[in-house]
Specification:
Largest sheet: 6 strands, mixed
CATH class: Alpha Beta
CATH architecture: 3-Layer(aba) Sandwich
Low-confidence stretches: none
Structural class: alpha/beta
Bound molecules: adenosine-5'-triphosphate, magnesium ion
Strand content: 15-25%
Order of helices and strands: EEEHEEHEHHHEHEHEEHHH
Length: 266
C-alpha cells in the first residue's frame, strides 16, 4: 500500500520563478491497484513520480510504502522496490549490452546476485520464456545489442526488466508516448497483462484520456499540484472522454490544457 499525505514541493524557492509544483497532495493506493493519472502540462504529474522515487526530497508531507516511511530514504534504496519507466525508450536499457545481458543485469540487481556478462544456460532459458510471449521474436535475438532494436522493442524489454521480479510499486510516466500508435497499443496491452498477472500496484501517467479510462481501476486528475478528480467504480465505468472533459471544465472553470492530449483525447 502506498500512502501519501500532505506532500509539498516548491521549486526555485525565494526567486521570482518560485513554483509550487505539489501543494499538499494526499493519495492512498491499496495493494494491487492500477491508477491512471492525467492532467494539464505542468500539473505536477512527473514531479509526483520524482517525489515518490526519491529524485529529490520534498518540503513537507510523508510517503509510506507498505507501512514504511520512505520520505527520507535515498533514491537508490527506493529503487529496490519502486520501478520506473520513462517516455524515452533509450532510458531504460543499456544500448551496448545485448538483450540477454540487459535482462541478466536487472535480474541480478533485483535478486541481489552478482552480475556477470556470462549468462548461464538456465538464465537464458528463463529470459527466453519471458520474451516469447511479447510476440516480437526477441527470444531468437538474445545476442542482439539493445541499441539496434526499435523504440517499441526496447520499451517492451524495459517493461520486462522492471517487472521480472515484481516491484512493490511501478511508475509509468507516459511510457508509450514516444511510440507509433500500433506499437503503443501493443505495449499498453502488455503492461496491463503483466500488471494483472503479478497484481503490481501501478501508477500510469498518460495524455490519452481514453487509455486512462480503459486501463486500470482508478483515474485521478492532477491540477496545480493537487488531485482535483478521483474516479473509480461505477462513476468511472460510465465515464467517457467527453464526460471527463466536461467534468473538468465544471470543476476548474477552464479547458484541460495538454498539448499532446488534444491530439489523442478523442
Ligand atoms: N527540477 C525542476 N526545477 C524547476 N521547476 C521544475 C522542476 N521540475 C518540474 N518543475 C516545474 O514544476 C511544474 C510541474 O512539472 P511536471 O514535470 O511535474 O509537470 P507534468 O504534469 O509532468 O507535465 P507534462 O504533462 O508536460 O509532462 C512545471 O511548471 C515545471 O516547470
Ligand atoms: Mg510529465
Amino acid at each position: 500500500m502506498l500512502e501519501i499525505t500532505g506532500l509539498q514541493k516548491t521549486f526555485l524557492k525565494g526567486t521570482p520563478n518560485e513554483h509550487h509544483a505539489l501543494q499538499g497532495l494526499d493519495l492512498t493506493l491499496p495493494d494491487g491497484q492500477f491508477v491512471t493519472i492525467i492532467g494539464s502540462n505542468g500539473a505536477g504529474k512527473s514531479t509526483l513520480f520524482n517525489a515518490i522515487a526519491g529524485t529529490f526530497s520534498c518540503d513537507a508531507g510523508q510517503i509510506a510504502l507498505d507501512g514504511r516511511n520512505i520520505t527520507r530514504m535515498p533514491e537508490y534504496r527506493r529503487a529496490r522496490t519502486i520501478s520506473r519507466i520513462f517516455q524515452n525508450p533509450l532510458m531504460g536499457t543499456a544500448p551496448n549490452l545485448t538483450i540477454e545481458e540487459n535482462l541478466a543485469l536487472s535480474y541480478a540487481r533485483s535478486t541481489k546476485k552478482l552480475f556477470s556478462r556470462a549468462v548461464t544456460r538456465k538464465d537464458t532459458d528463463y529470459f527466453r520464456s519471458l520474451l516469447a510471449p511479447l510476440g516480437m521474436g526477441l527470444e531468437d535475438r538474445m545476442k542482439t545489442r539493445i541499441g539496434l532494436l526499435s523504440g517499441g522493442q526496447r520499451q517492451a524489454v524495459t517493461l520486462l526488466m522492471c517487472t521480472m521480479v515484481p516491484p512493490r510499486l511501478l511508475l509509468l510516466d507516459e511510457h508509450t508516448a514516444a511510440l507509433d500508435p500500433v506499437t503503443a497499443e501493443k505495449i499498453l496491452k502488455l503492461t496491463a497483462k503483466i500488471v494483472a498477472e503479478h497484481r503490481i500496484t501501478t501508477m500510469m501517467i498518460t495524455h490519452n484520456i481514453k487509455d486512462a479510462l480503459q486501463l486500470g481501476d482508478r483515474t485521478i486528475m492532477l491540477e496545480q499540484g493537487r488531485i482535483v478528480l478521483d474516479l473509480s467504480g461505477e462513476q468511472r465505468a460510465q465515464m467517457d472522454v467527453a464526460g471527463l472533459l466536461q467534468l473538468y471544465r465544471r470543476e476548474s472553470g477552464k479547458e484541460l490544457d495538454n498539448d499532446r492530449m488534444l491530439l489523442t483525447g478523442e
